[in-house]
Write a structure and sequence with these properties.
Layout (H helix, E strand, L loop, with lengths): L8 E6 L23 E7 L3 E2 L5 E2 L8 E4 L5 E5 L2 E7 L3 E5 L1
């Protein structure tokens, strides 16, 4: 599927959370029910215009792995695949 977000919207593919801690403790299945907070950027809009009408560049690009607000982005499904879509303001950090 080919799509392009408008304004400062970002499409994210949620990353699966680890099922064990770094020390090897296995997490119960109920922990998997939580909404993700990490994802990969799959599409980015052109940016938002400021008061002067100038286009503000987006701070993320396709392929970036990011942390985002837990309940910020909305869940959608396109062609049987789940995505999260939100504003640039929902992104908290880029993961290096």
């Amino acid at each position: 599927m080919n799509f392009k977000p408008l304004s400062n919207h970002i499409f994210l593919e949620p990353l699966e959370e680890e099922k064990a801690t770094k020390s090897g403790i296995l997490l119960p299945e109920t922990s998997e029910k939580e909404r993700p907070i990490r994802g990969t950027v799959v599409a980015v809009g052109p940016g938002k215009k400021n008061e002067k009408g100038e286009l503000q560049q987006m701070s993320v690009k396709v392929g970036d792995k990011v942390l985002f607000k837990k309940y910020g982005p909305d869940e959608i499904e396109l062609d049987g695949k789940k995505y999260l879509v939100g504003d640039e303001d929902d992104i908290l950090a880029i993961i290096n």
